[in-house]
Amino acid sequence: MELDEMKNLWEKTNKIAEKTKISEGKIIEMLRKSYKGAMNSLLSLEILGLIIILPCATIIYCMFSFWNLNAIYGVEVLKWTFIALCIIGFFWQGYKYKFLKGIKIAEMNILEVSQKVLRYRKYIINEAIAGTIFFIIFMIPLMYFVYTFRFGNEIIFPLIIYYATIFALGVLMILFLYKKLYFNNIKKIQESLAEIEEFQKEIDE
């Protein structure tokens, strides 16, 4: 009898252990899916950037020509600076996409993945800062050149306020989009990695 009881107890213990392992595996898989969802969102953003950045340069070139802005002193320099930065940006987008694709959670340990994600986050911080600075440097002279070309030295306060509002909204929009599209997804990835690491530590113990 005692032998049968011990056997039944052993079988129950094994079943509980198996169920626990299955549950642990499911939890880790769910965390990995959360990681992959955020990572795929970032990859999609980089692909979108690759697709639209050169057409943006073409559109700006055509807009300047159509509105005859090239006739305004100083605008020609701004136009070609913007186009050159778009070309540089195209290769930068390609590099970021390749960098993200190289982060493989199935083939790396959590520390390696975390370090690469942190490096990518630094890339995006620097990009957001550089993008905001460029927007300021590009838009202020452009607005000034267009304003003086159309109105000379005449001061029209409502129009100045209008230009200033557009400029401020542009800066805020850049910062908002980076936070919404990039930093939120990076945060999700980092949280998923931290949870996976913590859960694996608990399993090992």
Brief rundown of the structure:
By secondary structure, the chain is mostly helical. It has helices at residues 2-66, 75-101, 110-151, 157-204.
Work out the radius of gyration. Answer: 27 Å
Q: List unreliable stretches of 5+ residues.
A: 5-10, 12-24
Assembly type of the chains comes to single chain
Helix content class: over 70%
Question: Cα distance, first to last residue?
Answer: 35 Å
Q: How many beta-strand runs? A: 0
Number of helices: 4
> What is the overall shape?
elongated
Please describe the structure with a list of short key phrases separated by commas or semicolons.
single chain; 205 residues; mainly alpha; 4 helices; 89% helix; 0% strand
Write the layout of secondary structure elements.
Elements: H1 2-66, H2 75-101, H3 110-151, H4 157-204
Helix pairs in contact: 1-2, 1-4, 2-3, 3-4
Q: What does this molecule look like?
A:
There is one protein chain. By secondary structure, this protein is mainly α. It is built from four helices and no strands. The longest helix has 65 residues, at 2-66.
